[in-house]
Design brief:
Protein name: Morc S5 domain-containing protein
Helix content: 40-55%
Largest sheet: 9 strands, mixed
CATH architecture of one domain: 2-Layer Sandwich
GO molecular function: ATP binding; ATP hydrolysis activity; endonuclease activity
Keywords: ATP-binding, Chromatin regulator, Coiled coil, DNA damage, DNA repair, Endonuclease, Hydrolase, Nuclease, Nucleotide-binding, Nucleus, RNA-mediated gene silencing
Distance between the termini: 63 Å
Family: Belongs to the MORC ATPase protein family.
Shape: elongated
Mean pLDDT: 76
Structural class: alpha+beta
CATH class of one domain: Alpha Beta
InterPro entries: HATPase_C_sf, MORC_ATPase, Morc_S5
Strand content: 15-25%
Strand order of the largest sheet: 8-7-6-5-9-4-3-12-13
Number of strands: 20
């Protein structure tokens, strides 16, 4: 809590309780976001000559625990700038163009988010006739809480270069300087002044070295930062890490950053900046991070220019535009759920893979985009934007861009539109009512044709529904063929004679259409044979010949049909029916597979929504903890004030009693004098 105090000069100053450090650090929900703040500080130093930033792991020589190192060769900080950096809420960057930091709180919140304590070494060249300086400062939550400090005390010591030697630079008295040194030695990983000064050996003429120690642990007692999974990376444990995504990243390299940026600093840092000068390098655990622009992961790219419009309907600034590059990730042909826009602000990634469109099913899958939006302001943690009308309009425009792009290009990577059906045999999209280009079967008008287009029905079903025979027999022919219909049906393996309606089922594809013509030809053959059977025996055939024919028909082993023809003659028809039956089964399997894929998509969507809900719940829990911490701070301050007030009352009471006693003694002494 903040309480007003008066310093010896008579000016009021604000006291900040050490618990505020921890509460303030929780503004960073994501540890890699806190690390990105430190990278921003180093990149901002490019204007002061920085050419690299190095992130690495060190070992605490006192307790053998692991520490995090972030160092650069930027302009460094003189004693005044060091104190400004270590104080809360100060920033000299807000007036400097093309710098990322602006709130002046990022260094404190980011370092305290990663660990309880931080030690800063900085060396600065002499400017404007001043001598070169080097400073050491310690911001230690452990020190403040362990010693019961009510204020945030930051011990610092400074050195000044005289010739070739570094001498102590005093700001007040030597006693104060020595007290700060002893405090740093006691609560830092380095036990002597010589060990502290040795840290400057890696800094040449200028630069800054930040060491974060007493790193935070998770609920299982393990470090939140994982240094063991990859010797060239720093990764996160817990909810940000998804083993399934890690395996998928190996199979789909073009989607690697989408799948791994949540837990891998190397992956995240490679896309953290839209542009990175070749003269500036980022090293992570001894290996350079290769800058990556996800535009190179796209195919079928399209560029769209978005111009924000102010509330009065006029452009806010003619230069305030966003050039959006949108396309399919090159792995989109595998139909993996990768999508979102990388939104940058002043070259810095604010929203990685922002998922603006959450569609039912597979809508929008594989579509990614990149844009730089300098007309909207980022939030304090640089992981989101301030909720403004401009942001809402940008989001709506990006949703429409993604929908338009998806509807115009989804078919090019194998997706089927919601209102169309892609025939497995032909690859053509057909409407639900029928197949374009199919022709009505013989004997039916065009208006009857759409009724014949259900390829999912079997011959049996269509035949029973139509109630027709396959050939237009005359009444006399139908009367004679009725006696043979049952036996003919058994030869066709139980399939009843089909109508032209069922024949039209094969018109949907060229291969099936050709088969239907073969069937029609065989039906004509059946019709001719039945007609010959119906002709009276007036062609000169003798009774003996007819009896021989009947005896042949009656033989058990005779392979003949009731119409007098061999079954072997009709085996091609049976084979065609069997092939078409197999084809229908294959189509059914394809439909089942598509349904299964949709089910998997829905499950993934449910999982994504569940994760978002859990994340919101974690944010709510964090907010509750912050509120409880502030309540504790106020309670402690109130208790302390009450205790001080009670002490003052007690002292006042004691002083009053003392005064009364002195007055009484004086009175008694006066009386004795009078008696004498």
């Amino acid at each position: 809590a903040d309480t007003s105090q008066t310093n010896p000069s008579g000016l009021e100053h604000v006291r900040v309780h050490p618990k505020f450090l921890h509460s303030n650090a929780t503004s960073h929900k994501w540890a890699l976001g806190a690390l990105a703040e430190l990278l921003d500080n180093s990149l901002d130093e490019v204007r002061n000559g920085a050419t690299f930033v190095n992130i690495d792991m060190l070992e605490n020589s006192k307790d053998k625990t692991r520490m995090l190192l972030v160092e650069d060769n930027g302009g460094g900080m003189d004693p005044d700038k060091m104190r400004q950096c270590m104080s809360l809420g100060y920033s000299a960057k807000s007036q400097v163009a093309n710098t990322i930091g602006q709130y002046g709180n990022g260094f404190k919140t980011s370092t305290m988010r990663l660990g309880a304590d931080v030690l800063v070494f900085s060396r600065s060249r002499g400017k404007e006739g001043k001598r070169p300086t080097q400073s050491i400062g310690m911001l230690s939550y452990t020190f403040l809480r362990s010693t019961g400090k009510e204020d945030i005390v930051v011990p610092m010591i400074d050195y000044e270069k005289n010739g070739l030697n570094w001498t102590r630079k005093l700001r007040s008295t030597f006693a104060d300087w020595n007290t700060s040194l002893q405090t740093i030695i006691t609560w830092s990983p380095y036990g002597t002044e010589a060990e502290l000064l040795e840290q400057f050996s890696s800094i040449k003429e200028q630069g800054t070295r930040v060491i974060i120690y007493n790193l935070w642990e998770d609920d299982q007692g393990d470090l939140e930062l994982d240094f063991d999974a990859d010797v060239n990376d720093i990764q996160l444990r817990g909810g940000n890490r998804d083993e399934k995504n890690i395996e998928m990243a190996k199979r789909f390299p073009n989607s690697k950053h989408f799948l791994t940026y949540r837990h891998s600093l190397r992956s995240y840092a490679s896309i953290l900046y839209l542009r990175l000068s070749d003269a500036f390098q980022i090293f992570l655990r001894g290996k350079e991070i290769e800058h990556h622009n996800i535009v190179t992961d796209m195919m079928l790219k399209k560029e769209v220019t978005y111009r924000p419009v102010a509330t009065n309907g006029l452009p806010k600034d003619s230069n305030m535009v966003a050039d959006v590059t949108i396309g399919f990730v090159k792995d989109a042909k595998f139909h993996i759920d990768v999508q979102g826009f990388n939104v940058y602000h002043r070259n810095r990634l604010i929203k990685p893979f922002w998922r603006v469109w959450t569609a039912a099913g597979s809508g929008g899958r594989g579509v990614i985009g990149v844009l730089e939006a300098n007309f909207i302001e980022p939030a304090h943690d640089k992981q989101d934007f301030e909720r403004t009308t401009l942001l809402a309009r940008l989001e709506a425009r990006l949703i429409q861009m993604q929908k338009d792009y998806w509807s115009g290009n989804a078919h090019r990577i194998g997706y089927v539109g919601a209102r169309s059906f892609r025939s497995p045999e032909t690859g053509r999209e057909n409407s639900p009512e029928g197949s374009p280009g199919a022709q009505p079967s013989p004997g039916h008008s065009g208006k009857d044709y759409p009724k014949q287009r259900n390829a999912g029905k079997s011959y049996s079903a269509s035949s029973k529904k139509s109630g027709k025979t396959s050939t237009p027999f005359s009444c006399q022919q139908a009367e004679k063929s009725a006696r043979t219909k049952r036996s003919a049906g058994s030869i066709l393996h139980g399939l009843p004679d089909t109508s032209d309606d069922s024949d039209s089922e094969f018109v949907n594809t060229p291969s099936l259409s050709s088969k239907s013509h073969i069937l029609n030809a065989h039906r004509k053959y059946f019709q001719n044979e039945n007609t010959s059977l119906a002709t009276p025996a007036s062609n000169g055939t003798t009774e003996k010949e007819r009896s021989i024919t009947k005896s042949q028909l009656a033989e058990p082993n005779a392979r003949s049909n009731v119409d007098g023809h061999s079954i072997d003659d009709h085996e091609p028809v049976i084979k065609q029916l069997r092939d078409e039956n197999a084809s229908l089964k294959e189509r059914l399997l394809i439909v089942e597979e598509a349904t299964s894929q949709e089910l998997v998509m829905e499950r993934d969507k449910v999982k994504s929504l569940t994760e978002r809900l859990e994340d919101l719940q974690r944010q709510l829990d964090t907010a509750n903890k912050e509120q409880e911490a502030l309540i504790d701070i106020f309670s402690e301050e109130r208790s302390r004030r009450d205790e001080e007030e009670e002490n003052l009352r007690q002292k006042l009471k004691e002083a009053s009693n003392t005064i009364q006693e002195l007055l009484l003694e004086k009175s008694n002494a006066g009386r004795k004098g009078q008696k004498v």
